[in-house]
Specification:
Low-confidence stretches: 1-21
Strand content: under 5%
CATH class of the largest domain: Mainly Alpha
Radius of gyration: 20 Å
CATH topology of the largest domain: Tetracycline Repressor, domain 2
CATH superfamily of the largest domain: UbiA prenyltransferase
Largest sheet: none
Number of helices: 17
Mean pLDDT: 90
Oligomer: single chain
Helix content: over 70%
Structural class: mainly alpha
């Protein structure tokens, strides 16, 4: 897909484009904060997989996961530029603020998507590459283009896109998809609804203004808080599956149970308190929770029983 004439004319080889601010704008298209957690869970999947992978190939695999996540983020920003221009939380992003042309963002996303999949296929293996391609396509077409603007279940179904990275990392190391990688997938899949609905609770006004049918907008705050509590409770036993299937040991299980109970306690507080502050706290803890959960699995693998 070629860039439009206006986009090409507006971005010449000048200090504006090549300077630090220009580089920063294009880097922002890759959603680096989101990418960091994606890369971490992908790395954990690679480290937990049975067998061994050459460190260079492992680094290439993780880099491909990072590039693919950023590419999907760039296409997402291109598609959602109308919504981003309305919501205060996203108005400063590169496209709605006018710092990057939409066609440039789309071009960047497409090029990086193809490059990440091709490199993964040639350097690592085709199974990991196929999963990487599937994750990009699912995020762009199923979540961004289809679900996000049509159903309050967008996060529940679309959450699969963010759950692929540990499975991709696992496949990079083993060349297959086994129950261990599926377990890691399920943890993130179950974590995603309470994580994003906590965000939606204190951003529901902006979602309503932009016409995005997030659960608080369609079903109200009360139902959203109930669903957060429901999924938080389900998340606890799911988080213990790595021990049940031999991916992690009992040390991890004890720590995961403690972290899960704290998650449920936060969800109960959101249900009772019903303030934006409680939702913000749960959202912040949910990010820390997922990071700690996956870090504990690695610690448990390296030093059994230490977690």
């Amino acid at each position: 897909m070629a860039l439009s004439d206006s986009a090409a004319d507006s971005r010449t080889l000048s200090t504006d484009v090549l300077g630090a601010s220009g580089v920063g704008d294009f880097f922002a298209l890759l959603k680096p904060k989101v990418m960091s957690l994606v890369v971490f869970t992908g790395l954990v999947g690679l480290l937990l997989a049975p067998g061994a992978i050459h460190p260079v190939l492992g680094a290439i695999a993780v880099l491909c996961i990072a590039v693919a996540a950023g590419a999907a983020g760039a296409v997402n920003m291109w598609y959602d530029r109308d919504i981003d221009a309305i919501m205060q939380r996203t108005q400063s992003r590169p496209i709605p603020s006018g710092r990057v042309e939409p066609a440039e963002a789309l071009g960047l996303g497409i090029v990086l998507s193809i490059a990440s999949v091709v490199v993964m296929a040639l350097a690592v293996n085709f199974v990991a590459a196929a999963l990487l391609a599937l994750s990009i396509l699912f995020y762009v077409f199923v979540y961004t283009a289809w679900l996000k603007r049509r159903t309050p279940q967008n996060i529940v179904i679309g959450g699969a896109a963010g759950a692929f990275p540990p499975m991709i990392g696992w496949a990079a190391a083993t060349g297959d998809v086994s129950i261990g990688s599926v377990v890691l997938f399920l943890i993130i899949f179950m974590w995603t609804p309470p994580h994003f609905w906590a965000l939606a609770l204190f951003s529901s006004g902006e979602y309503a203004k932009a016409g995005v049918p997030m659960l608080p907008v369609v079903a109200g705050d009360r139902e959203t808080r109930r669903q957060i509590l429901f999924y938080s409770i389900l998340l606890v036993p799911v988080s213990l599956l790595p021990t049940a299937f031999g991916v992690a040991g009992m040390g991890y299980a004890v720590a995961a149970a403690g972290l899960g109970l704290l998650f449920v306690a936060g969800a109960v507080h959101v249900w009772r308190d019903r303030s934006a502050a409680s939702a913000r706290r749960l959202f912040g803890y949910s990010v820390l929770y997922l990071f700690l959960l996956f870090a504990l699995m690695v610690i448990d693998r390296v030093t059994p029983g230490a977690a």
